[in-house]
Design a protein that fits this description.
Chain lengths: 470, 470
């Protein structure tokens, strides 16, 4: 999960602003609801998703885009879709620059020499084979950094200490992640030699949280790293003593060449309208520090398992159910953007999409930007999901990150909103490992995705796909 | 905290078996209880201990015995005792071999290449400048390893996967730590090339837990390391696939030369019997991975603050209150052993001792091996501690680890038993940082130590010091 939360309000406004669709009401036949209930109840008895994410984290592990782990993940996904009985399995190439972390370390040089636990932000340059030694200048917020005069930092390191707050819906991330994404460019404009941020994460574990950053076009590029929450506290405690705090950073991070990975697609082919699709999925890549269990092994596993459950039925859905394991989400929705371009001509055949990319917490809300005439169908889906503890919530939420390029072209989204209270404790850290997933909660998520996908695929009428101009 | 829990049952039995002391009952004058109540209530309003541990973790940080951090910690402790108003501050030399960790890394080579998060056990040798590549052989327990024939491991790596269980009193540590302490020697006898253990820790954070190990006299020495709990799970998940699992370990760990550190002692001098002492304290050294906040910055801070609070009174206690910040506890109670040898002739003048070395959780129990005739005094102390939520518990517990050499020579111990439910989540890991300490709970601990020390120092009669033959 990357930037969805930042963008969600914009998409929501766009949805509210979009013109009224044609008046024909979309509904779902009662027989489809009955099948969906069977799928739901069956999913609650199965550990298919657990087995999938256990397999991915054990047999592949980290799969940073462009690394050998990425290649192994693609081969794994193709084999897994096949083994799960999908009707059609294919890959579509996705090309991007390769960013590698390399070795990295940090330390406080003075006034109190201590190691500093840090990690490069994704996309950052390194320190050019030498240690970078400089005094840090503290800013409580990105806005405070923005407010100082250009070139005033004079080769010092900008240190932004904003703490990410914990919310069930993860909105604390959206409030703090700007430091990570744009901090380096703003710091460079102020004359800084590097950027250090407090990790965009909610736990006090001594793990630094990585995640993508980007350099402004034409701006000076400086190394950017995150320190763990305890290390950020340590720096603040040193700074409180009102002596200059000097740190040393070494980072080998670099962007090196180009790589072609694959979006991996498994499809349960529709019986009546096979070219119309309900899209579900997650992203196959991960950061390199953990094993990518919650980000986003869980999403891949949940949606693969939901598709597989549907594929195990004696009948086929009216429309196709397409499960996409997107390539390189973490470094800019790259697989999703290339998917959207490749399928630009058939966006209207993407009836509705839902991505699972917010960990493995229980789903508590069904949300969608479906227009009025399709809302009755959403309500019918909501009724089948209600026994899972899922409430229908209108006028809130947004699509999973990989759906953004498709939604921008007009696809309608649904969101099966998960409890993300602890998501940012583990996300983008070495601590993103299998043990953070509750197998029982995972069953609930498969149940919701399977029932949702089946019912959406059986709908009479559409969900109002329409270019949203994003 | 190191081995206390292992040894506690033996000490307890020794206490119960010890001969009846002379019949004169020890009691504490009512005026002393009144002062103790004042100390208790004042401590609950002060953050002195927090300030001390913040200072130690910020200005010194890691202080592995024999490193530059050790030297800085000694200088820090001398200055802090002085600043806190102790009547007498001195150091006593403690000499020991220096063990250094150096660089270390691990990875699975096959069947599924993945990084492996590991750390050397304290005292372990390294891999002699080269990677050590070998297949792992899994044992669920140390006893299972013991049970295989000598030389049967044939150069493979013994992997012990026992999981440490969580208990308030930390007894899960005692049940699993044998793998860490003795595993390498036993594995070497079986022909292993190295030992890997599941970390002796209760959290699922991807931190390996270090801690001391020892080689059997005359036995072959092999490298010994702990993998984090998630990494142990990963190895088990790979092993379940019934293919050979080969790992690579690189460790620079080595014992290099000798170092002389210091036990640092701050004393509030007694007004009537200054050569009789009530000993409280903690240990000043730490492992190198974190900043030694809970192990044992907290214990040093609690007992320093308790002593300082007493030193701030207009009157002095009858006997001296001696706060000892012991050197090198982690690598074998070395400071404590040398203290006990140095003070062997005056053990009977150590009236009673209590060490804080179990983190910073609230104290729930007052325990002691004081004999019958001194129990009325313990009960009087218990009555003053009761409003802190502390219950008197007879016939259980044991001394803090640094007291073991003194107790073996006859000193009576008290234990202010702390809630250690989460202690082994952080202990001996990079996650042992200041944020793991609750400042409010810390006040309660200072209150208990201050009231205890004052009352014990005012006792009429002794606590039955007697060689226990340990």
């Amino acid at each position: 999960m990357r930037l969805a939360i930042l963008l969600a309000p914009a998409l929501l406004l766009a949805a509210l602003a979009c013109p009224a669709e044609e008046a024909k009401t979309t509904t779902i036949p009662p027989a489809a609801a009955a099948v969906a209930e069977t799928l739901r109840d069956r999913a609650l008895q199965q550990d298919t998703a657990w087995d999938i994410v256990e397999s991915l984290t054990t047999e592949v592990g980290q799969r940073l885009a462009g690394t050998e782990g990425d290649a192994r993940a693609v081969a794994w996904a193709v084999a897994k879709f096949r083994a799960l009985g999908f009707d059609e399995v294919r890959t579509e190439p996705v090309t991007f620059p390769v960013w590698l972390r390399g070795e990295e370390s940090g330390e406080v040089l003075s006034p109190f020499p201590q190691p500093l636990v840090l990690t490069a932000l994704g996309g950052s340059i390194g320190t050019e084979g030498a240690p970078l030694d400089a005094e840090i200048v503290h800013f409580e917020t990105l806005d405070a950094l923005r407010a100082v005069p250009d070139d005033s930092l004079d080769g010092r390191i900008a240190f932004i200490s904003t703490r990410t707050q914990r919310y069930r819906d993860g909105r604390g991330y959206g409030l703090s992640v700007g430091s990570r994404v744009d901090g380096a460019s703003i710091a460079a404009a102020k004359g800084a030699s590097a950027l250090l941020i407090r990790s965009i994460g909610t736990s006090n574990d001594r793990f630094p949280h990585t995640g993508n950053m980007r350099y402004a076009e034409g701006g000076r590029r400086i190394p950017a790293a995150a320190v763990s929450n305890p290390d950020a506290d340590l720096l603040l405690n040193m700074l409180r003593r009102e002596q200059p705090v000097t740190v040393r950073i070494r980072m080998q991070a670099a962007t090196v060449g180009e790589y072609t990975s694959q979006n991996v697609i498994g499809e349960v082919r529709g019986s009546e309208l096979p070219d119309e699709v309900v899209l579900i999925g997650g992203h196959l890549d991960s950061w390199d520090l953990g094993t990518g269990a919650i980000d986003d092994g869980a999403g891949v596993a949940i949606t693969m398992a939901a598709g597989a459950l549907i594929a195990s039925l004696p009948e086929r859905p009216r429309r196709s159910i397409r499960v996409v394991a997107f390539a390189n989400e973490e470094q800019g929705l790259i697989g999703a953007r290339q998917y959207a371009e490749r399928h630009a001509a058939s966006i209207r055949q993407h009836l509705i999409g839902a991505e699972s990319d917010f960990g493995a917490g229980r789903i508590y809300g069904l949300r969608s930007n479906a227009p009025d005439q399709a809302w009755p169908a959403i309500e019918q889906i909501g009724a089948v999901l209600a026994p899972l503890g899922i409430e229908l919530e209108r006028g809130v939420g947004g699509p999973g990150p990989d759906l953004i390029p498709l939604v921008a072209r007009g696809m309608t989204w649904a969101q099966l909103a998960q409890d993300g209270t602890d998501y940012f404790d583990y996300h983008h850290t070495p601590n993103d490992t299998l043990d953070k997933i509750d197998p029982i909660a995972l069953r609930q998520q498969v149940a919701a995705y399977a029932a949702f996908a089946w019912m959406a695929a059986q709908a009479e009428g559409d969900f109002g796909a329409e270019p949203k101009g994003l």
